[in-house]
Write a structure and sequence with these properties.
With about 220 residues, this protein is an alpha/beta fold. It is about 55% helix and about 15% strand.
Length: about 220
């Protein structure tokens, strides 16, 4: 079963989404939120696979809410459901960390397909651009992801990317190897990566291995 959270300031819309997902039978709606503040709290407290998020909510909604949710819950996939049909809004959502984007004009069957696809780790764009430009959308989702790293985590990432061992990193930064391992786990979680090889590729692709030491 796919665990889904719903965040929309209109109760009628949440009820419609709830009915559509329940009818599909392979979803569990684990919680609902009515504004930005409650959405952030919900995603922090309630384990789930996908958050269906309205962009235009009061009390801290908008693109910045995607960034805050992704920073706090990096494994949660965010599917934006918005009234905005302009492609530049969709691109901003992907840059902020969204995994999918749908307009509220979409049919219920498209919503179900989008949630399933996003839950499987894929991207979905209801404006039809995901199929035409999959690599471009994938690059958009990476932008700014490493901005969520702390200064110490960036130090560790840079050294890992140059091939340094955990023991060597621990010696250079005056840490224990266990602390370095903890930092590495946090880095993998925040970047949504699975292993050291993917981490090194990410660092090299974004030029993070060449960053100077923090003063």
């Amino acid at each position: 079963m796919i665990r889904v959270l719903l965040a929309d300031d209109h109760a009628v819309m949440r009820e419609c989404l709830l009915r559509i997902l329940h009818a599909a039978q392979d979803f569990v709606v684990a919680g609902q939120a009515h504004d930005g503040v409650s959405a952030l709290a919900l995603t922090h407290d309630t384990p789930a696979d996908v958050l269906v998020l309205d962009l235009t909510m009061p009390a801290g909604g908008g693109i910045s809410l995607i960034e805050r949710i992704r920073a706090a819950s990096p494994q949660l996939r965010v599917l934006v459901l918005s009234m905005h049909t302009a492609s530049h809004v969709m691109e901003r959502a992907f840059k902020a960390g969204a995994a999918g984007y749908l307009t509220k004009e979409c049919a219920g069957t498209e919503l179900v397909a989008a949630v399933r696809k996003v839950a499987q780790g894929e991207l979905y764009a209801g404006l039809g651009q995901a199929e035409r430009q999959p690599q471009r959308l994938a690059r958009l989702t990476e932008l700014g992801r490493h901005d969520a790293l702390t200064v110490r985590e960036r130090d560790v990432l840079r050294r890992l990317a140059t091939g340094a061992t955990s023991r060597r990193i621990a010696d250079e930064l005056d840490l224990t190897p266990q602390t370095v391992s903890t930092h590495k786990k946090h880095i993998l979680d925040k970047l949504g990566l699975e292993n050291d090889a993917a981490l090194i590729r990410y660092a090299l692709r974004h030029g993070l291995a060449d960053e100077p030491d923090d003063p």
